Amino acid sequence: MSERRDAVSNKLLASIPHTARKILLPKMDRVSLSVGDILYEAGQQLNFAYFPEDALLSVGIVVDGHAPLEIAMIGSEGMAGAGLGLGIESATFTKTVSVSGVALRIESNRFKEVLEKFPALRKDLSSYSQSLFRQTAQSAACHRYHVVEQRLARWLLAGRDRSGKVQFQVTQEFLSQLLGVRRVGVTNAASMLQKRKLIRYSRGNLAIINGPGLEEMACSCYINTQS
Ligand SMILES: [Zn+2]
Q1: What is the pTM assigned to this prediction?
Q2: Ligand 1 mean position to 179 CA, how many Å?
Q3: Among the four residues 35, 131, 151, 190, which has the most C-beta atoms within 10 Å?
Q4: Is the CB of residue 226 less than 8 Å from the CB of residue 159?
């Protein structure tokens, strides 16, 4: 009887005013997302907004026809489609599922109706967009200054924080695409982290076994983009 019917595991959704959340939730459905699913390509209409629960989304940029390079990640702290709150109708970047899981999804028109009723929500979306922007800027520096081992450690920790998972089904090929390095670079980095007993890696299953040790290995970008 005392169960809160609007309890949600997406932190952004949980942080908005209760009255707005009560209107939003019945308009949403819970969808399963699989690794590799493309939610939007850059320039595509934002038909839906997604609030991940334990799925992880990769914000990617495509340059010269290469596979999308990850510039930010979105998990239970955020959403895909925040631009709708700022009057943006099409995706600025590609959004791909990097870790399978569940998300709450709402049609953009219904989402916009709720935003009309609760204009204060735009402020929440705008602060979230700002943190996403910080991640993209940090990624530019990360690509330039930090080596693959540090970046892989950062990816795993940030993925853990945003999905609540410590095990990821992810191939080296997909990781090399996300990190923008050659596959052999990911292989070497993963085996170095494994040798130090920080992770376990086998057949596309990557598990964090020593979180604090991995934090020491990760570049400063991990701390700088925690929120
Ligand atoms: Zn870095």
Answers
A1: 0.92
A2: 11
A3: 151
A4: no
